[in-house]
Amino acid sequence: MLQRVVAAAVVIAISALGAGSAVAQDSIKIGLVMPMTGGLGAAGQEAAAGANLYVAQHGDTVAGKKIEVIIRDDASLPDNGKRIAQEMIVNDHVAILGAGATPSGMSIAPIATAGKVPTVMMISGTSVVTERSPYYVRTSFTLGQQAEIIADWAIKTGSKKAVSILTDYAPGGEAGKVFEQHFTNGGGQLLDTLKVPIANPDFAPFLQRARDLQPDTLFVFVPAGQAGTFARQFVERGLDKSGIKLIGPGDIVDDNDLPASGDALLGVVTAGFYSAAHPSAINKQYVADYAKATGGKRANFISVGGYDGMHLIYEALKKTGGKTDPDALLAAMKGVSWESPRGPISIDPQTRDIVQNIYIRKIEKRDGVPWAIEFATFEAVKDPLHPAAAN
Ligand code: PHB
Prior knowledge:
Blueprint: H1 2-17, E1 27-34, H2 41-58, E2 61-62, E3 65-73, H3 78-90, E4 96-99, H4 102-115, E5 119-121, E6 136-138, H5 143-156, E7 161-167, H6 170-185, E8 189-196, H7 204-212, E9 217-221, H8 227-236, E10 245-249, E11 269-272, H9 281-293, H10 301-319, H11 326-333, E12 337-340, E13 343-347, E14 354-366, E15 369-381
Parallel strand pairs: 1-3, 1-4, 4-5, 5-6, 7-8, 7-9, 9-10, 10-11
Antiparallel strand pairs: 2-3, 11-14, 12-13, 13-14, 14-15
The chain binds P-hydroxybenzoic acid.
């Protein structure tokens, strides 16, 4: 109860202050609340690296204003995320927030709404998150966008009996729900859905249980940072030689983990929105610059959410002439389209959500190293779970 009273008081303080009234300045502060450590630590590091790279490439002045990016670690804990967002608004006077994974995305929403702070979701893959605040805009992705396409593809290529293995939190739930809808609508049978605790990514018992059910297809979601462990255990259990088709959203073939995955994932087909092998000039530059900035890491699907998030913020500030009025910034973000390293993307003006191509990709070796090679494209895919979405 006391906690709720304190929270309400903070919301009132933020409302009274308002982001728009944040000290007239020549510099504009952008606060990124990221999971730099903890369960989703890999994702926070990658999104932050993408955001920093954008600023390094494009300079730190926009519309005559100096851009100051503040990155703080929520340690993958939503209560921290909420507190840090409050501090950034009240103490640092940030004009714009960037949020990371789904748990903090959910907890920050009332703060962003009360403070009228445009907030760019740079990691979250959960559909519902953008409905939690009218000030939320997404440059990451949704699991639903990818799950519907891979489910339809599986049916088309002969899958009949599937088992799902999903990390047990909101994005896994949505991935599983959309996969089940499309797979069963297409005449497939979902034998079981197995949920793996997020804090304890030991897939071995779940892989064994899945194998015992004798499916022809295994649909898997694990969040960024866990694909390497998953691939290792998949091979240890002999599932790569079992004849069971492994499919999923792009998360299970994370470019960050592919270089060290050997032959474990060769031939695996996923539906994803980003591959470091995407054959465009802008992506080749992105991959080269990202490697240079991170000591040789391969750019991945999480990093582009941070990179594109900064692009969206820069474009909105250019449109408002450097003014940070929150409603003007939000209006400037709606409907923007551009070419990202992942391909053409835009912000749906109705849902404030990302519209992007989804590619079907197969893991193949190039020069002895595994990459996700795109071989089919579904253009301008919207999130299927938003009430307003009509694909
Ligand atoms: C999320 O928190 O929504 C999330 C994080 C990492 C992923 C996917 C979704 O790979």
